[in-house]
Amino acid sequence: MSRLSPSVLVIILLVSCLFIYIGPAQNQANQGLVGIILLLIVLIGLFLAFSGGSVAQRESARNMLGTLTGITAVSCAALLGQQALNGNLLGLMCAPVLLAGVYMIFLAMTARIGQHVEEGEVLLIQRRMDHQHIIRPPGLHSPIVPALEVGVAVMPTYNIQTDVEIEMVDTASLHTVDKIMVDTQSRIIQRFPDEGESMPVEMRYEGFLKLPYNYPNRDHIFKEIADRRNMDVMQVRMSADFWIEAIQSQLRRDVEEDLRAIIHDNTFYNPEKRSYGKLAPADISARRAEIAAQLKNRVQEKVQQWGIEVLDIGITQVVLNPDRIKAFYRAITADLEIQTANRLSEQEIKRTIAMADAEAYQRKKLAETDLEIQRQRNEIENASSLQMLQDWMNTIIADNPEMKPDDLKHLLTLALDEHEKRKAYREHNLIEQE
């Protein structure tokens, strides 16, 4: 009984109280008291059906309403059965059994005309009296009562795949990436109970209550999708395909907007340079995992406000035009070539200077060696010359003992002058030979 919608339970409660009032209560003297009791039952039922409060309180009120309606319906059937058999207790006992049979027939009819929610979908209903919402999970439910309820949406519970293709993405270096392919996995927010935990339906399907009303720019988008399908907005909202298309449409816009902002504005750590910097076109493919992680966080902050949970975002392909890459790296290549040429020139200059220094050092060493040889030669020659002069002087003195010292001095001067002339002549000849 409690699986029926509150509107249907209220109708059963009203009919049961009405049958009790116009049936068994007619023959009683205290008909007014019975009427007051029945009125209190109806008021309590209405309060339970349309009371607010938390999700858990509404679920509890609905169960209480189902129990109250069941007791009232069984009591109505028992009293009507006893009255039909002129107070016989057989009617008091058989009527509830007959009611059970009628209830089974009612369920069979409901199965044919009731609201069937497909597996993987959820039906959202709004009550007209208090604007409260009811979530109907997959399964068979009582039909919507148009006077009391209105269907809001039929939404999917499964994961939604969205492929986003973004073209001509600008980077901070004023160069463009031709195309980036992004895959996303998302779903409407759901809370899954832990093992053994009892969770009301509305609490589990939390995002399904947000999405129809928090969807950004919903009137324009909903009307645009409905016009493409040649259907009314209220009619097309009762299809899960409509919500899939709406979710994918908004996700594509958010993913494209945030991805462009990340690539153009955000900085990434470069372990080689040990610093942060912005990405060039060729770096995007190598850093796609980091970009996807930042993109997921930014998109999740947006979509969770309107009831969507992003499960995964991945960048599957980054397309770069080869000519665009060459143009981008042409200046860098030219700078590298200039730097290489300068480095080679500096190395050649250093090598030439080193060779010149080595050759100069070698010449210096050779010159010093030649000077040393010449100095030693001169010393030898000077020693020989002195010995020869000494021998000559001794011979002159021995042959001419009567020679005066001035004459001897004159001869010695002439000999030294002759020796200096011959020495200068020899040095001149050595220089010309070199």
From TrEMBL:
Q: What is this protein called?
A: Band 7 domain-containing protein
The segment(s) forming the Band domain are 117-347
- Carries keyword Transmembrane? yes
> Mind telling me which residue stretches traverse the membrane in this protein?
7-26, 32-52, 89-109
Keywords in UniProt for this one? Answer: Membrane, Transmembrane, Transmembrane helix
InterPro entries cross-referenced by the UniProt entry: Band_7 (IPR001107), Band_7/SPFH_dom_sf (IPR036013)
